[in-house]
Amino acid sequence: MIDVLLTKSHYNQARLSSILVTSSHMTEQTHRKALCLALRDLREQSGLTQEQLAQKLEVTQSWVSKLENAQHDHTFESIIAYLYALNPEFEFEISFRINGETIATASTDLLKLLE
């Protein structure tokens, strides 16, 4: 099982549950769609249009649209860049679990230690 939780400063806590992606009963495509919907929700909560975000990222509006609609495989780096463009104070945590036991965790805190 892989759990991914993205949080954003000042994010509407009532909607935060839509950001939780849990893999126990999800296919790869379902994961991708859930994550991309969460990214779109974060952008909308930030008050940015796709065009405005595209300008901040120096990409096309079409690129942002494809990411948000899970129409293209994007790299981890692309997703991180997207999140930084929304708010440089985002946090993420990814936990890898086998039979309910966490075997590894990656998080924003870990990345800060590695810098």
UniProtKB/TrEMBL annotation:
Family matches, as SMART domains: HTH_XRE
Give start and end of each HTH cro/C1-type domain: 39-97
| PROSITE patterns named in the record | HTH_CROC1
Which GO molecular-function terms appear in the entry?
Answer: DNA binding
A Pfam family cross-referenced in the UniProt record is: HTH_31
Q: Tell me the protein's name.
A: XRE family transcriptional regulator
